[in-house]
Amino acid sequence: xxxxxxQIRLLKIAEEDFTEIISFIANDNLDAAKNLADKIEKDLKxxxxxxxxxxxxxxxxxxxxxxRFLIVQTYIIFYTIEDGSILVHRILHQARNYKSLL
Length: 102
Description:
Layout: E1 7-10, H1 12-28, H2 30-49, H3 60-64, E2 68-72, E3 75-82, E4 85-93
Parallel strand pairs: 1-4
Antiparallel strand pairs: 2-3, 3-4
Helix pairs in contact: 1-2
């Protein structure tokens, strides 16, 4: 019996994050950009099958907003689980001050 899959929805800002990240990397290394895009898409597919795969943030403020996160290489995907969907809020490099961007 197949597991219920959650629909993955990237908010507009997360789509912009994804596009900016891949474009930035592609300027230097097209293969690296493609590999990262494939890895993010693969991990989002895994997340659709197991939405609790991501971690709960240690930061109480972020945790109380209902965020979970998934790390893909040097990027953090912040998401929430709502009504059978996974809403991807942001895809940010780990070095960024993500708390101010959520």
